[in-house]
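re: ur question from earlier - yeah i can do the single chain one, its not a big deal. heres the input i used so u can compare w yours
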Amino acid sequence: MSLVDYAAAARKRARVFPVFRWQPGLWLAWLTIALAVAAAFFPGLFTHYSPVEGIAGAQRLAPQAEHWLGTDQLGRDLYARIIFGASHSLSAALAAVAMGLLAGTLLGVMAGAVGGRTESLLMRLVDVLLSIPSLLLSLTVIILLGFGTVNAAIAVGVASVASFARLARGEVVRIRHTDYVEAARGSGGTFLAVLWRHILPNSLTAVLAFATLQFGQAILALSTLSFLGYGTPPPIPEWGLLIAEGRNYLSTAWWLTTFPGVVVILVVLAVNRISRQLSGGRL
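and the output i got, formated as tokens:
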């Protein structure tokens, strides 16, 4: 086989199996997410320290062999609090994305499939929601509902509904005018049958890839709400709350804010990298 033929065969394999190409950044992103998910489900495998009980005389210890990431102002192991905080941060972000995905996709599909006045009315509502900054909308919702992890997830989910609805509507409109959908209609397919068999399966790919991207955004939004005091209450070890608790000790215990912040950044970057791969670079 010549070099030209080998290169052509390699490109063909890359097109058929794009996920299995050697991409260090992508594999590192998957590894980061795998570790975060494992910490969320099996925190006891990573640490034997309690995330809420302090150790007498171990207040604000710098990172060392016994406490890898140091301890906080109450003598609690910071590494343990970050590990146990993964379950609260990731589950709340997942709930927020699921809410935005379901509600937003329903609105977008309804608007794009029905059209007419229904589409105009729904999209004007979406435009109003998009005109409000997401953080301001989340704060408004959580103030109305009250503080807490569940309410924070609902607030972030409500703020993401409009983005999902606009994307879903655009995809449905694009697929609705394709030749194979017109042929399905012309062959006697009912509105619901064409929508279910042809429009939805081909419209949701971009929406699901966008949901992956929104998962990282939800982690940031929830951390922001917790940092401002509107999210998870102490002593629950949530990542945003850990950053907020350490901000008063930046000059004497820098690790209290630095390490939780680094974890949030790494997880969000990993999610964004995976989302870019799943969307084929369109997002």
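The chain is about 70% helix and 0% strand. not sure if urs matches, ping me
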